[in-house]
């Protein structure tokens, strides 16, 4: 993960480091309720650490909702022909 601190140390803070408009960003959007088990466990979780642990232990390909490359949507779970998104 490229953070603003890392970007500054590389003198690239004008290009990367956060999600400002115009910057290069690759990221994924995760569905915290992708499965029934995840939904149930997330409802019980009260701390961020618990939710992150649940993502690490229960998350799989169904958890990925969207993927962005250079800020452009490359994948959307609801868009069945996602190859058209990247063409």
From TrEMBL:
Its cofactor is Zn(2+). SUPFAM superfamilies: Composite domain of metallo-dependent hydrolases. It comes from the Bacteria. GO terms for cellular component: cytosol. Keywords: Hydrolase, Metal-binding, Zinc. GO terms for biological process: guanine catabolic process. Residues 1-72 form the Amidohydrolase-related domain. The keyword Nuclease does not apply. One of its GO terms (molecular function) is zinc ion binding. This is Guanine deaminase. It comes from Vibrio chagasii.
């Amino acid at each position: 993960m490229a953070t603003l601190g890392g970007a500054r140390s590389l003198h690239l803070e004008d290009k990367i480091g956060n999600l400002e408009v115009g910057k290069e960003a690759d990221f994924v959007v995760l569905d915290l309720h992708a499965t029934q088990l995840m939904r149930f466990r997330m409802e019980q979780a009260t701390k961020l650490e618990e939710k992150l642990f649940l993502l690490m232990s229960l998350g799989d390909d169904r958890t990925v909702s969207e993927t962005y490359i250079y800020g452009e949507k490359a994948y959307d779970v609801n868009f069945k022909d996602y190859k058209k998104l990247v063409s």
